[in-house]
Design goal:
By secondary structure, this protein is an alpha/beta fold.
Length: 256
């Protein structure tokens, strides 16, 4: 429960009781101030109740604005949707629906978007994926595994531009979709594995395709692994975390 996660000395019920009392007191004082009413209005006068209702509605709107600001601040500080959702007593999916776009992904043009940084040596992951929703899920799944510098590009041309830019860090792992505009994942994989400077970077194909030709073609082009995107959200996240765990924690990575 959120109360136990963020204040182990107080229960969620106690948090709710204290919050209700504080908000109620504030709303009553504001309502009386707006009305210029005495502390104890006549019991049959609806003005006080209506003023209180009006104030509570505006407090609700203010709370929603402040929650949005707090969610943005939490995301900038490194929290993911799982932690943001837990703070509000909801699932990560609920937090994503309530505050979409906390992590910057743009479908407007194929370019890279750094989404996480940390002072420690995080792993560098290049995600070549044009589906914004899938990119967000992958980012969240990776963030739960630890510090990651994630760069997302939306097609093979942008991936090569990033990889060949002199100031770009060499990724520890490339996660590659197959179906993309301009240069698809099949063509990009062939380029990567025929390039002397890039061919040792592990490449995992993560795609919806189960076509035998796609699987065979990927391995013929020397993909390190081929993973089909599960339909189930939880299984999708587990698949991403399994890729991350093996290639970044277990496997010995080539030196640049």
């Amino acid at each position: 429960m959120p109360g136990k996660d963020f204040a182990p000395w107080i229960t969620p019920q106690e948090t709710a009781s204290l919050t209700d009392a504080a908000v109620g007191d504030l709303a009553q004082r504001l309502a009386r101030r707006f009305l210029g009413a005495p502390s104890h209005p006549a019991p049959d006068d609806p003005a006080q109740a209506l003023a209180l209702l009006h104030v509570l509605d505006h407090l609700k709107q203010a709370t929603e604005r402040l929650q949005q600001e707090a969610a943005v601040a939490a995301a900038r500080a490194g929290a993911g949707y799982p932690q943001i959702g837990a703070a509000c007593g909801m699932t990560r999916q609920g937090a994503r629906r309530r505050w979409p776009g906390l992590f910057h992904h743009s479908p407007e043009k194929p370019t890279e978007h750094p989404t996480m940084t940390t002072p420690a040596r995080p792993f560098d992951v290049l995600l070549v994926e044009d589906d914004i929703a899938d990119a967000m899920l992958i980012e969240e799944a990776l963030s739960e595994r630890g510090a990651r510098n994630l760069v997302q590009v939306t097609d093979g041309v942008a991936a090569l531009e990033h990889l060949r830019a002199p100031d770009s860090p060499r990724p520890d792992l490339i996660v590659l979709d197959l179906n993309m505009p301009r240069m698809n994942g099949r063509d990009l994989l062939k380029v990567l594995k025929s390039d002397d400077d890039l061919q040792t970077i592990p490449v995992v194909v993560l795609t919806t395709s189960t076509a035998p030709d796609d699987v065979t073609g990927a391995y013929s082009s020397h993909a390190n692994a081929y993973v089909t995107k599960p339909v189930n959200l939880e299984e999708f996240e587990q698949a991403v975390q399994s890729i991350d765990a093996f290639y970044l924690d277990t496997a010995t990575r080539p030196r640049p």
